[in-house]
Amino acid sequence: MNNETLVALQQLATKLGTTSEYLWSILLKQAPIDGYISILIMLLMFMSGVILSIISKNLSKKLDENFSYQKEEVRNVVAIISASAWILAIIGSMAILPEAIIAIVNPEYWALSKILGSF
């Protein structure tokens, strides 16, 4: 670490009433936890997308039976809603994935980015 990083870490430790060594060890332990939580969130987003797709397919069939004169319109609305949910899940996953990988593979870099990002 360079001097600027050490100063930032020491300032943060002083604000928290602890030592910089203890704060650094805590951040290193937290990095993989944060990475795994991020991956779990991504998996939950994709699972909810799959569940939403199944529900929308079943809903489309039921609506087709009740509104046979508007089949195409109903299918299009359901498809747009389902596609929108998938797009949001993919964008959210793309935002979360890099930090999750960094936290698991390189916890020192993750901790350093958290320290420097807090100022």
Give a description of the structure.
This protein is mainly α and 119 residues long. The chain has one domain (3-117). It is built from four helices and no strands. The chain has helices spanning 3-16, 20-66, 71-105, 107-117. Helix 1 crosses helix 2 (20-66), helix 2 (20-66) packs antiparallel against helix 3 (71-105) and helix 2 (20-66) packs across helix 4 (107-117). The protein is rod-shaped, with a radius of gyration of 23 Å. The relative contact order is 0.16.
Helical element count?
4
The percent range for helix content is over 70%
SSE arrangement, N to C:
HHHH
Main beta sheet, described?
A: none
Give the domain tally.
1
Structural class: mainly alpha
Q: What's the short version?
A:
With 119 residues, the chain is mainly α.
Attribute tags:
single chain; mainly alpha; 4 helices; rod-shaped
SSE layout and pairing:
Layout: H1 3-16, H2 20-66, H3 71-105, H4 107-117
Helix pairs in contact: 1-2, 2-3, 2-4, 3-4
